[in-house]
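Researcher: We're reviewing a set of sequences before deciding which ones to prioritize for further study. For each one, I'd like a predicted 3D structure that I can look through quickly. This is AAA family ATPase. If possible, include the structure in token form so it fits the rest of the review sheet.
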Amino acid sequence: MTNPQKIQSFPEPVFTSTPTAKPHDSKLLKRTEIADNLDQLLEMLPPSIGEKLAQHPSRDIVIEVVMDLGRLPEVRFPHGAEYLAEMPITREDLKYSINRVGSFSGDNRAGIERTLHRISAMRNRSGDIIGLTCRVGRAVYGTIGMIRDLVETGQSILLLGRPGVGKTTVLREIARVLADELHKRVVIIDTSNEIAGDGDIPHPAIGRARRMQVARPELQHQVMIEAVENHTPQVIVIDEIGTELEALAARTIAERGVQLVGTAHGNQIENLIKNPTLADLIGGIQAVTLGDDEARRRGSQKTVLERKAPPTFEIAVEMQERQRWVVHPNVSDTVDLLLRGQEPSPQIRTQSDSGEVEISQKPALQPLPGRQGLSVAPPAQPGGWRASGRMRPVPSGKPTVVNAEFEQMLDQAWQQPDLVEDKVRTPGPNGEDWPVYVYPYGVGRSQLEQVVELLNLPVVLTKDMNSADIVLALRSQIKNHSKLRQIAKARQLPIHAVKSSTIPQITKALRRALGMDDFNSSEALDLRLFSHQGSDDELEALEEARLAVEQIVIPKGQPVELLPRSPKVRKMQHELVEHYRLQSDSFGEEPNRRLRIYPA
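Model: Here's the predicted structure for AAA family ATPase, in token form for your review sheet.
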């Protein structure tokens, strides 16, 4: 016979907000009730243990009961642990309890039908059970008052926190509220039968939400996809996302427009950033190489970490304590700030014993207690006399300290021409003003200088955008930096884009900017630009490709196959063919792999 549920009621909570918090609807908080079904758990324990625990004055706050073979039984409370008997646990005691619970799944977990209790087993090397951890499961109604406004937004929510902080309890209550009060189609992926209890009939604590059980823990990601494809849910609830396949399945579900509510292994968002398996939940992390100017502008190294994609979960909740949660309402902004070495400013939501909720904004410069942060170097700050303001202009009179070598260097420095004000111009062949002042953005300066020197181009590189005539930038940098386009438009500077910072691409862009873009002229091509080391073998292979293009492919419109070359040399030939705006492919097997050039 099943005993009735034990209900413990608490006073009606009161909601308040600080000036930094937005006012919320009065229905944010409901009456808090706890259903623990503790009597069913006592019945599965050996009589000597169950009877003593039933008479314990703190039985209402029991967390779990531990029974290990040959050791004294132990009961754990929030304030500590106690022994329940003076006799060690025997195999008969373990067998008594095992016979009164359901079957153990692949993750060594079982339950008691129609309850939320979790029985976890410890096995020896032979597979025999030698220990049990009997965790008390409680359905706490009204526990999501602190984040109910976030649940109603329809955005995906990720719960983080240490074991035992109450993630699964909150997850269960969210599923009930979404199904019963917001009338949504909710499907729970219950891998360990911990959310909706053991047995085929789910616990009433999940309300009208439906529950899908998982045969084996490693199949959780398949059941997640199956739920979306077969049962048309509006909300998917997942507990303990812990593998890369599960993270990928969560992203797939989110991209189909389904709201996700789940938990993951980790206490804070920083833990997910450092975890390559679960990093996709917050957008994924990738290493990006910045150009010289961009790295200088950011004050960082050239290789930095950036978010790869939009996060699977838009909202993250760090459950630091049962009554103190840190809410990140915009996960993408939080991750971007952390990757740049800055401290985010999330919401801190707390609830007092009387049920009063307070929402405050965490100051951006004050770290939360216990937050370790990322091991990302802070942006470099300027230093020295110039930054401190102690640098003074050189006096017009004769210096008091005489140093001949220093004075000579100083005179030479002051006598250098100022490129911003004194541009030396000469007319070009078509009457244009030469040289052309080029402002490079994201393009390698050494490659630029090499092209200018080898081709003897009338080009001067400048670091001042005010003195530039054109901007030469990587195509990817132009797409990602609207500020560059705005500045160039305001100064009426044309932007010439290059696909990559390679010598052939730079050569093509500079010649196009100078009006020298003649690809059919052999005089306009210097094979040294495409050679890496300038060896005879490289120049011979490039000359072969040039002759094939200019004498056969372009005039006759016929494809040409070149002689077999090494992969390194074939890459140079590909770049040369691309210079002529033609297509080429490599075919054949090594060492006879060769290039085939196609007409336009």
